[in-house]
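Hi everyone,

Forwarding the result from last night's run.
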Amino acid sequence: MKTISLDVLYRSDYDCKILSCLRQQWTDVSRYTCICSPKREELLILLNGYEAIYRFPDGSTKTAKDGTVVYLPTGSEYLVTFHRTVPEEEDACTVGVCYMLFYNGERVRLSDSIAFFECSEEIRALFGKELSLCKRADSVPAEKKAVFFRLFSAIGRKISCPSEALSKKVTIGNFETIRSSLDYMNAHYDSDISLEEIAALSYVSPVWFRKLFREKVGMSPAEYRTQLRMLQAERYINFGNMSVREIAESVGYHDVSLFIKHYKRYFGITPLAARKQKQSLS
């Protein structure tokens, strides 16, 4: 199944199918497992009054704090244990939305592994609205999809700017070490500056910089620069009339064929086909 990041999906025309929305209280039972039985659909869970510890088949763990939105992808296997974080007299629950995503008619997922998102009052309210609609016998799919689009948009807005997203996501440990390099990449993604030159901006070796960057950002410096270029290229495709060559050069590609190759790998469609598709929908 193809993987498309949320910031890309946020800017794209996509579809979804809402399967269910469930509110659960983990009192008598505090664990759930899908090890040896991989998840078949995507799941977004809002933790309200609970902390969740996810354990994976390889022995690794991830902890989601109370108030976090957890994304669980198709194919994931884990054992989760819920720990109540509020007094017994206070309400505690999880609200989970089970769904499937489609991009250009193909089913997609957001990631190969679970991810955590910061919650907000808007996001919390939209989870409640989705739950209310799914409980109603007279609700229609369009209503549930509309709320889901709003929910995804609310989450997408929080990470719509890569630099802003990274600032929120990785503010601990040695992140400050690479901030200068990251800020430069955000502003000059169209340049051909080498890894050695980028690492020098943070006064570390290229080997250490690459290791630290992947640890804190979740991808290599080259992958991150490509992501920035592709997101800008998509904006030019959707909202301008530049030629493919002009777009390629504007985002830092001297080789148009390489640009087209990267664009297709990233979005699953060539720039020209994407433009034709956009025009047909206008």
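Residues 232 and 251 are 7 Å apart (CA to CA).

Cheers,
N.
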